[in-house]
Amino acid sequence: MKFPALRAYALFYLLFLYAPILLLPIFAFNDGTIIAFPLKDFTTKWFEQMFTTPALAQAVKNSLIIAVSSSILATTLGIFAARASTRFAFPGKAGIVGLIMLPLVLPEIIVAVSLLVVLLGLGIKLTTFTVILGHVLICTPYAIAILNTAFSSLDRSLEEAAYDLGETKWSTFRLITLPLVMPGIISSVLISFTISLDEFIIAFFLAGSEPTLPTYIFSQLRFPKQIPMIMALGTVLVLMSVILLTIAEYFRRRGIAKTGGTDTGGFL
After folding, report:
1. Which CATH number covers residue 74?
2. Number of domains forming the structure of the chain
3. In a domain, 60, yes or no
4. Phi first, then psi: what are they for 192, rounded to 5°?
5. 123 within some domain
6. What is the distance in angstroms between the CA of the first residue and the CA of the last residue of the chain?
7. What is the DSSP letter of 176?
8. Does any domain span residue 119?
């Protein structure tokens, strides 16, 4: 290789980035309560404890409700926004699209505090519903970014042919456009679901007395005896995230191939 220093830097960077994740399963199956080497005996009791903790079960239930609702709403809004931005020209288009995509560059803590002030000012009680609103706000730009690619890759001549054959705009969208961009829609739902499930800052500010999974994990870090169970939970979450991202990437590439577009990059 011509650049050994660059190769060494890349390997060191990857090791630094993923070493903490690789340590999760190691300590999740360790019998000791102290996260340190040397390891003790192999055990699965932390996983058993994880599945028999009522508070954790409630947090998982809240997170699933929020993630499913947020991903569906964000993808629905993303479909409309992506369709409008790739097919129509209207006054203020660039500014409107930029405003929608703004949460991608804003610090999440700024978004969370702003939402908290607005919601409390309106007298809205902090529940899972308020967390859903916050997650829709941050997931929608990601959904639009994915769906923009799906709609941009779609051959417009297919829609024009449907119009020539007597189909209305709605029936063309329902029978032609949606099936062709469906892999992008599925990818958008899965990515939004993953983002919402793992999100902490907005949930911390807006959940009120109904904790989500990330906020529950944060609350348990104060208790050393709970750390091994959190390591086991982290192992499960990492595995789920990898599976969901792999499925999302598969559908993204399938959608690009289906519409005859060019792959310009992805998640994996």
Report:
1. 1.10.3720.10
2. 1
3. yes
4. -65, -40
5. yes
6. 24
7. I
8. yes
CA distance 162 to 29: 58
Q: Give the closest residue to 138 by CA, choosing from 169, 94, 100.
A: 100
Take residue 101 and report the two structure tokens written for it.
Answer: 């995509």
pLDDT tens readout for residues 228-250: 888 888 888 888 878 877 887 77
Provide the token pair at 175. Answer: 């029978």
What are the residues whose beta carbons fall under 8 Å from the beta carbon of 158, sequence distance 6 or more?
176, 180
Task: State which residues form the domain around 85.
Answer: 53-259
Whether the CB-CB separation of 26 and 39 falls below 8 Å is answered with yes
Q: Which residue type occupies 49?
A: Q
6 within domain boundaries = no
Digit-coded pLDDT (tens) for 28-62: 888 777 776 777 778 888 888 888 888 888 988 99
C-alpha closest to that of 207 among 264, 126, 268, 145: 126
Question: What pTM does this model have?
Answer: 0.79
Q: In which element (H, E) is residue 23 found?
A: helix 4-28
CA 222 to chain CA mean position, Å = 27
